[in-house]
Amino acid sequence: MFKPRVLAPLRALERAFTPTIRSTNALSQSQSVLRTLSASTFPKTTPTPSLSRTLLPFSQVRYASHASQGTANRHSRDPAGKRLGAKRSGGEYVVPGCIIFRQRGSKWFPGENCAMGRDHTIYATQAGYVQYYLDPLKHSERRFIGVVFNKDEKLPHPRNAPSRRKLNMVSVPMAEKVVGQSDLVASVDENGVQVSDVAAVDAQSGPQWRPGYMYRDANWQIGRAAEAAGITAMPYDRRNRWLAWRKREQRAERAAQMKSLKGKKKTSKK
Amino acid sequence: MKSLSPALASLANVFRVPMSMAPARPSVSRVCHETLNRQQQKPGPVTAALQSASFSTTGAMAKRKSGGSTTDKRITMIRYFLHHPLTPRPLRFSRNRYLRHWTIHRAWQLFQAQQRRKQELELMRQYQSMQEACEELRTGAGDGGKLFRVSMNKKGIFTDMFPIEYARMQTETPPAEGWNYDWKKPERK
Amino acid sequence: MAHCERASKPLLQCLRNTYSRGIAGAQLQTRAFQSTASVREPEAETTNQPFHKAPDPSLVTSPRLERRLLRQGTAPIGSRRRRAALQDSANIPFEQLPYQCFQEARKVLLADREEKLKEIETMRQRLARQESLSVEEAGGEKAKKSRVTAMQLHLERLKILADINDPLVKRNFEDGEGDMSKPIYRFLADRKWREYRRKILVQRITQMKVIPDVLPHCDPVVDTRMYFGKRQVQAGEFVEARASTSAPKLDIQIFEGGEKLVTIAIVDPDIPNVEANSFDYKTHFLAVNVPISATSTKVDLSKLLEDSQVVLPWLPPVAQKGSPYHRLSVFIMEQKNSRPLNFEAIKAKETSRDVTLRTLQASYHLKAIGAHLFRTQWDDTTLEVMKEIGFNGANVELRRARVEPLPYKRRNPSSFR
Amino acid sequence: MAAREPSRFLSRALPRASVPSIRPQGFLSRRNVSDEAPSRRLSDHLSELESASSLSTPVPDSAAQSFDPVARAKARKTQLPRGRYQFRSPKYDRGPLHPHQPPPASDPSSRLFVPGPFSAPRAEQTYDATVAADIMSLCYVHTPPGFTPPPKAPRLREWDDSSPYHKNRVLRGPRGGDVLRLLRKPIKFNNIPEIERITIHSYVNKAATENSSWLHVAGIAVQAISNVRVETFKSKTSVANWGIVPGRDSVAVKAELYGENMYHFLGKLVDVVLPRIKDWEGVKGTSGDSSGNITFGMEPENVALFPEIEVNYDMYPPKMIPGCHITLHTSARTDKDARLLLSAMGIPFYGKIVN
User: A single GO molecular function, which one (chain B) (predicted)?
Assistant: First the structure.
């Protein structure tokens, strides 16, 4: 009856430590693993009280009769592994966007042609071959992951060497721009050239699908809407102190109203 | 009622002065007082607001018992002086005044450097004169440096600490009662 | 406009006028005031004409007269408050102001300056004696050379120490009237440059990777300013293609005496090479034997001599549509011992514009002492400029190449745990 | 006139803060170096100086009798137009590349500007005039010229290579414990011990248990005696019976004194406060951290003896004046020298002397 209790933490330990150990279901196998695990790992790490109690030699097993406060079910929780670690080894070919290393915190740092995501994942920004290296010039302790363009290239590059870059672009003949008729018309008559302007034909007026997911007129058309409707605003006169005083008073009143409104809303809520 | 400027407002809460009561225009407060005297019996909203501020019908002890703040006035003063909000604005000199300040500053730095240099040289001179004297004693005294060796051992002389009687700060003027020649060091008990 | 009715009011009321925002804001110069020390112009000039006919720019206070001065082109000097205070000032020279602490300080500085002058004299004599020594007396050529150098350095430092504590020197320098032939003003200019503008230049060069790409090292020692037409270009600014069709004008300020011969090169390390999928170098401008000194700093690249200075004439930089921006770095490189280079040989040899600046630097022993940077990208004026200079890639656009994904690898369930 | 190409790097004698000292690289000789007489006449050099220098002519006394700015200001009928430009130095340091940089601390418009020294402290004059020379002569040890002290054994001992693993191993600790004491240089004219700074530290335990008034009174008291704004510290460890938890409330105030403040404080301490402490033996002989810093404690009633506190003693709530630890940091390398210096300045020591 007590075997599953004893084995549960054991299985957690196996899964937490060395994912490559093939956990067979046979009891003897897990017992031998238990002994090796407890020999190899525990003396180093300070065993938390709950683990050591359940892994005492079998003769003195004690049930968790008195569940000490807070640690009752701590050892029974076992979250899924996050599959961290290296996803591409050194010398492998990667393309931009390939994740090279998943990590918690920045154990490795992005080097040449690599970048770091928001969860410190290191991914490639150029196509090439992965290199794990140290760069004492950039930082004395940090370990870097970089991408080089050809296999035999060694990182880190020598000091102040020109940076190697790829263009990654193709040249495409330029698409003819729809050339609208220019709104300047030149007509030649007896007394020299007469130049006059004509309303531009191709200005796509009217509402269009515009950036910002809006179907609306062009900004310059909206701007001229007031002019079309004939609305005029009083020109700003800096010296008109009386108007400025009236505006100040109105602004103060509005602010007071807003404040009292906020007050009333709060009292009504309580 | 216009409220106080932010800086003075922070002072107000240190002195528990009611925020809005500071009468911006003296005429308003006079009016309130007259209305107050006339209608003593039914305090309207305006006088109620004034009542708690300008004068109080509850006695001082009653106010203290009714849970008013009892912190020591001195502590309030200390807190006011410690956290005074109105820090002085940095100085702003005119061009000529700034150049005069700059000249004085440069001269002062130069003068201090010269003084330090002079003291250093003086100490060096003293040290070198001691060195020559000792060397002369060691080699030139004709007794093979015996007197030199005797003079160098510092047993018994206050090598560890100066006697406390030595340590007297310089003063502007000589002491009133002059040098006391028959002073004896008091015996330690 | 309300302003002129007020002007018609009696003069007394006019004196109490408030500021008009336009005038006072125009000459908002920080601390660039006219010193009171300048003795007033001779009285004769203003007596024959009443004041409001020919207002003195350093004393005028009424806004109307100020506007008249502005229309005539001379701006009123300093703030209105200062001009009002100066109107009835006794104008005592600055060093004679009778402030006791200030005069005591001047005495200390006066004595120190005398001492420095004496030291200059003794150092000059020792320098003369050292140079008159023959080589073997001075203990070998190298020893003599190094001792002479050290003495000259010390002599220069003494000259600066003699003037560093002088408030008038500081005022002249801050008003921009420092004469760069004098070591003290060169020193103050160098210190001011290093406090801010040089840091910005070094940051732009290193962050935009001009330093490792074009040249391995560059420790800027001269202050370079670049102008396209009237506009000054900051380090790393984008320049319109139209503006950069004509060669820029440089203002190179050295902070040491004497004259130098420099080579000026403008290099673009970002020419897209689609076949090789990489970037090429192109030298947009190369000129040698350009003389610059502390006093003559202006160098107009378009006006350099074709037959003895310009090796590669100015090629307007253009960026193809869609290509990343082009970094055009300007390098001022000092020629070894300021000896002129053999122009004909260089002209014959350096014909191709694709030679990298590192090879030029190595072959002609150049040392980079100044740098500047501007950037070009595709804008609406680039097309016409391309047509004007006959740029062959004019109607070609660059698009990002498609990235082929990695070959598909079947998932191998057996390998899962 | 192609002036002689001289200077390359000029920074040694100038104030180091303003000009970074740059190593003199190669010397750049001028194009026409050979033909011109290198040692030009004095006038050439002097011409390079500022001709209209204000420091060249002493002030004629007659010049400024008419100078009376106060009368002129009173005589003005109308007020001067208001000055519009108000420079304010930036409050925060936004890094070296920000265009708006704070002015140096010596500039009066800077926020860190402290007006110049207004007094020459007695303690400083005493030290410069007599104490320094006396200590030098007291500690003088004659070494004949050309005398080199016997080479001492290296302080970190080597491994004895008894096992192959000793190669490249980190050196062993010094003999007797692994604390490396400071090396003591013989006291010469340039190595005379002097007082560098004084620290006044006061731990206020009631600030944690009761309200913050204890801390405020302690802060203003230490600020009064030291003339320096105090710095408060929060508790770092958790001690149950003192009721403190790391980082919850600030329980200590500290004031660091340098220069003029330090000497004034020392003068007050030695002349006014210490003599008036009732039956005070002096500073314990065992005090000192064997690096030249001597510390001693002051009871609250002794702190009240300071003139600044005594003068308005009733302004401080009773029993709230703090006790404090006063640490005298000296440039001496051992306790012995530090005590020698402090006894010369007037601080008595008693009891067993421990170095």
Answer: structural constituent of ribosome
DSSP-based three-state secondary structure for A90:
coil
Write down the domain spans for chain D. 195-350
Distance between CA A29 and CA D174 in Å, rounded? Answer: 52
SS3 D202: strand
Q: State the pTM of this model.
A: 0.75
Give residue-wise pLDDT tens across range C221-243: 999 999 999 999 999 999 999 99
In eight-state DSSP terms, residue A115 is E
Q: Each residue of B35-94: pLDDT tens digit?
A: 445 444 444 444 444 444 456 666 767 766 776 677 888 999 999 888 876 667 778 888
Smallest Cα distance from B115 to chain C, Å: 12
- Look up residue A126 and give its two tokens: 């150029």
How far is residue C329 from each of residues B6, C197, C251, D186, measured CA to CA in Å?
53, 17, 15, 58
Residue C257 DSSP code: S
**Which residue ranges make up each domain of chain C?**
20-91, 100-193, 196-389
Helix (H) or strand (E) holding A131: strand A128-134
DSSP 8-state assignment for residue D244: B
**Which chains lie within 8 Å of chain B at 3 or more CB pairs, if any?**
C, D
Preceding amide of A96 cis, omega within 30? no
Closest CB to B102: pick one of C101, C108, C170.
C170
Summary mean pLDDT of chain C: 87
Residue type, A125: T
- Is the pLDDT at D30 greater than 90? The verdict is no
Checking DSSP bridges between strand A214-216 and strand C223-228, what pairing results, if any? unpaired
Count CB-CB contacts under 10 A for residue C330.
23
> Long-range contacts made by residues B125-132, C-beta under 8 angstroms, separation at least 24?
B126/D133, B126/D136, B126/D137, B126/D189, B127/D136, B127/D140, B127/D188, B127/D189, B130/D137, B130/D140, B130/D142, B131/D142
Verify whether the Cβ–Cβ distance C109 to B111 is below 8 Å. Answer: no
Please report the sign of the dihedral spanned by the C-alpha atoms of residue C133, residue C134, residue C137, residue C138: positive
pLDDT of residue D111: 87
| Chain C touched by A193 (CB under 8 Å) | no
Pinpoint the residues of chain A covered by CATH 2.40.50.100: 85-148
* B100 → chain C, closest CA residue: C102
- Does residue C286 contact residue A181 with C-beta atoms inside 8 Å? no
Whether residues B82 and D216 touch (CB distance < 8 A) is answered with: yes
CATH 3.30.1440.10 is the classification of domain D195-350: yes
Residue C114 contacts A where some CB pair is shorter than 8 Å: no
Least Cα distance to D351 among D288, D298, D276 occurs for D288
Three-state DSSP class for residue A192: strand
Q: Does D80 touch chain C (CB under 8 A)?
A: yes
C246 neighbors C229 (Cβ within 8 angstroms): yes
3-class SS of residue C367 = strand
Among A162, A164, A169, whose Cβ lies nearest the Cβ of C274? A169
Provide the β-strand partners of residue C367: C334
- Contact (CB<8Å) C167/B100: yes
Report CA D159 to chain centroid distance, whole Å: 42
Select from D188, D196, D201 the least CA-distant residue to D338.
Answer: D196
**C196-389: CATH architecture:** Alpha-Beta Complex (3.90)
Q: How distant is the Cα of D21 from the closest Cα of chain C, in angstroms?
A: 11
Quick check: D208 and D249 in contact, CB under 8 A? Answer: yes
The SS3 assignment for C332 reads strand
- Candidates C160, C152, C178; CA nearest to C116 is C160
* Chain D residue with the nearest C-alpha to that of B130: D137
How far, in Å, CA of B97 to CA of D337, rounded? Answer: 47
CB nearest to D189's CB, from B78, B101, B123: B123
Q: For domain A85-148, is the CATH number 2.40.50.100? A: yes
Which residues on C lie below 8 Å from A162 (Cβ)? 212-214, 269
In this complex, which of C212, C272, C321 lies closest to A167 when CB atoms are compared?
C272
